[in-house]
Every structure is written in structure tokens, then in C-alpha cells.
């Protein structure tokens, strides 16, 4: 029962379309362990578990399955959190390609990969590469999730931050304001949002 609950959580957390019973207990355990370590900020320790989950995912679902894309994205995030951008970049690019092929170009998970790749470029001051990715991610999220979805606010904040980093304040301010309004609407005006400050 413990594995079924963990597998269901994994399905919901990553948007996996495969049946819950199609995932081995070993895959679920490796995924959950990397997640636990990541949440504790122990990124280097989480990497072997993320790699194991990815290898098992490729074996169980195939290298082009959306689940493999999600697992690639999780491993890339661990490298990203450590500033290991050269290792994260090809993983995010591969996750994006898999998700576009498996889910279609306008799926919210594609928007997530676009946003993650944009963040990677943004943090390296590769602004010209990051901006169109943020914009495409935003357009997908607005269409797929609606203009007032909290995920839209996150991408608005990221795009605003990119403009802010380039001293493009007139472009950043309305995006920050709109993102804040969405978060306040979703969470209430007294919620500790921690939005981009």
C-alpha cells in the first residue's frame, strides 16, 4: 500500500500519464529519495538517486516517453541548483524535446521545460536566449491554464526578473504587478507570498 500511495503521489507531482501500476517500487523509491534530499538542499547526495530513477524510467517507459522527460527535468534541476549549468542544459533541452514530441507543443509540461531552460540561461546572463523561452512558456500557460493561474504568475515573475536584470524597468514593473495580483487573488492579500523579493 505504501508503494501505491508513493506511486500515486509521483504520478500527480510529475504529470505522468502511465498507469500507477506500471512503475516499479524501485523507481518510486529512487524518485522519492532524490526528492527528499532535494527538499533538504542536499543536491549532490540526491543526484545518484535521480540518475537511478532516470535509468529505471528509460527502461520501464522508454527513452521518448513523457515520464523520461520529467525525470530528465528533475535531474537537471539538481545540477542547476548547484550552478552546474553545463550539465543541466542538455538534460533540460532533451526533456523539452521529449515533452514536445510526446505531449504537443502547447502542453503545460512543455511550458515548464521552457521556463526551466529560460531560468538556466537567465542565470548565466544569456538574456537574448532566455527571453523568447519565457515568452513562449507564458503564452502556453495562459492558453492552457488561464490568465489567472498561479503558474502564470511564476513565469511573469521570471520574465520580469529578466527585464529587471537588464535594467528594463518599464517592462518589468507591469509584469511584477500582474504576477502579484494573480498570487494575491489565489492566496489572499495577507498571505506571505515571498514573490520575487
Overall description:
The protein is mainly alpha-helical and about 200 residues long. The chain folds into 2 domains: about 100 residues, Serine Threonine Protein Phosphatase 5, Tetratricopeptide repeat (Alpha Horseshoe); about 90 residues, Alpha Horseshoe (Serine Threonine Protein Phosphatase 5, Tetratricopeptide repeat), CATH 1.25.40.10. Helix content is about 75%, strand content about 0%. It is globular and about 50 Å long. The N terminus is likely disordered.
In terms of per-residue confidence, which ranges show pLDDT below 50 for 5 or more consecutive residues?
A: 1-21
CATH superfamily of the largest domain: Tetratricopeptide repeat domain
Computed structural class? mainly alpha
| Large-scale geometry | globular
Helical content class: over 70%
Number of helices: 9
CATH topology of the largest domain: Serine Threonine Protein Phosphatase 5, Tetratricopeptide repeat
Whole-number average pLDDT? 88
What is the CATH C-level name of the largest domain?
Mainly Alpha
Report the β-strand fraction as a percent range: under 5%
Distance between the termini: 42 Å
**DSSP summary, beta strand count:** 0
Give descriptors for this structure.
single chain; 197 residues; mainly alpha; Serine Threonine Protein Phosphatase 5, Tetratricopeptide repeat; 2 domains; disordered N terminus
Topology:
Layout: H1 2-14, H2 25-39, H3 43-61, H4 66-81, H5 85-103, H6 108-122, H7 127-145, H8 150-165, H9 169-187
Helix pairs in contact: 1-2, 2-3, 3-4, 4-5, 4-6, 5-6, 6-7, 7-8, 8-9
Question: What's this entry about, in short?
Answer:
The protein has 197 residues and is an all-alpha fold. The protein has helices at residues 2-14, 25-39, 43-61, 66-81, 85-103, 108-122, 127-145, 150-165, 169-187.
